[in-house]
Amino acid sequence: MTDSEVVTFGEPMALLLAERDLPLDAATGFAWSIAGAESNLAIGLARLGHAVAYAGRVGDDVFGARIRRELRAEGIDVSGLITDPELPTGLLIRDSPVDRPITVHYRRSGSASTAYSVDDLPGTAIRAARLLHLTGITAALSASSFQACKTAMIMARGAGVTVTFDPNLRLRLAGPDEWARIVDELARHADLIFVGADEATMITGGVPTEKWFFERGVGTVVIKDGGNGAVEHTPGSSTAVGVRRVPLVDPVGAGDAFNTGWLSAWLRGLPVDRRLAEGAAVASLVVATHGDAIGLPDAATRDRVLAEGADIDR
């Protein structure tokens, strides 16, 4: 894992997605794929040509074996993905019906990912990477997962590795007060924050989002606001970009896809306008397809989309 440009770890889940746009209670078939904020980002960055290492825990079951196989097939280093001999791989079952709310069911309580701990961290890889990316989902799974996240962030910054963090709030994992505590503590060890505008209202207590994070030592804050686009803030500077308009097929995974596009541009040393534009382009390709990661593009597809230019509504 020491040759990886990006290291991330999280909760890999097997996604069973209802087919034919049917609501979950009427579904007759399911498509199988991988779900998880960090695995989405790992897949996305690998497709865009970056060397990525992904760590975590899966069960010693068919779901865990297939997750490992699928991630490896994407070119991701999974040597830090541990097989737990006792606890199962987490499951996510959902639909994506047209013109009605999405129904999501998790089977994650007591999963292998909840047992992730400091002892599981790929320390050598983290210290050797350019970037460590984490989300609040992993931190909220258990006390040991939270401690692993915090320790990894401190370890990375101590080695001069850039740390990025997306709260990615899930209210089924914790209530607003607990989320505010998690984000408050972990943001103090991050260089860059990705956060949804709706999430920020539950965290910052009415303080402007960028100000709240700047006060905790974060240098860059990227606020994602769905169809309204995104804004990148640094102290003294703000830059906004709109969205690329596409037919909305499945909104799940849009935030992870935006992070993927933005981080790829950052890793390649591109300026703020291009970072935001690439984030918007990658997100548009994901929401126009079913599933969390199926629409993530390769670099050639991303560049063709960006060459159209006018599709980025600034």
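That was protein one. Protein two is written in the same sequence-then-structure order:
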Amino acid sequence: MISEVQEISECVEEKAENIYHTIEVDSRPLEKRFYKIPETIYRNDPDWIPFVREDIAAIFDPRKNPYFKHGNAARWILTTPSGKEAGRIAAFINFNKMYDGNKKVGGIGFFECINDKNAAFTLFNIAVKWLKVHYFVEAVDGPINFGENDKFWGLLIKGFTPASYGMNYNPPYYQELFEAYGFNILYRQITNSLDFSRPLPQRFVRIAQRVASNDHYSFKPFRYRAREQFVADFVEIYNKAWVSFKDFHSMDADVVRKSISEMKPIMEEDFIWFAYAGKSPTGLLVALPDVNEVIKYSGPAFNWWGKLKFLFYKKIKGFSCARVIVMGIVPEFQHHGLESALIYHAFNEGKKRPQYKHVQLAWVGDFNDKMIAIHKAMGAVEDKQHATFRKMV
């Protein structure tokens, strides 16, 4: 067995000067170092907004992340010989989603690194080795999240401006490091933006109003007091709407409950809409205020002091941007205009709140022609591009 492990390790490791050290994160002090490493990378970057540390901690806590029920994760810190932090990385395996056809696929994420190829390769090597030795993967995707793809997913490759909440931000040189190691773009993730000061196109409005007034359909905003019914409706819609996508796996109601609980402090209930045909849930749209507009002032810690600062700056600064994080229609009702009606309802609620200036439309894969066409019909313009990369190992 030892010789097999050595053989695998030699297959995945590439030549690099042995000047960096990797430390696996297995204690609270090392966790704290892991969270603070981005501060080293971005200390001179005015566009960087840190992730909330508690959000990242929850991803690697088996008590809080339901993905540990069917997967595993590991983290490492990269240091120089003198002990100075130079980068970090995490690796994941999701047993429910680890096959792409007949290939077993693992993932890496939360990659941060100084602009040095040897440093980056050392991080990639340790993560790929862990996936290869323990789970015999044949491919590695990254940067991804050990969770749903609505957060911390993809490498920024276009639009290097401040990120919305949960969206990855990185220097342009990260793409060079990924590609030098042998990663290639698997798909692009497009984020579009819509200006609240500009009216929706008239053709779009006519379709939306016609559908909204159709007695066969009804549209309801989310209400937290009735959240269990909305959780059930969300799961039903999601599991029908995305079933045709490659490597689809059904949504877990526990994941939805956890997300709703996390969103509660900042959600605008009237920004979340559901569509029904009779009593059957048929479509959904979920939009949230972009809390990064406040986090850039309050900071990444959400302990009691951090929460007080967040509430203070929330009151002082407020929100000017909303973000649509998910929208979907069950297949038999697609192309019926329900998408337009959902957007119409949420857009009108946004316009009632003059502090909101624009809305970001969550990333759409370049493979999703239907949603890209809807964004164009709304008059949205491209704001950013992320990419998910894959390396065969």
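The CA atoms of residues 224 and 392 lie 44 Å apart. Keep this in mind for the problem set.
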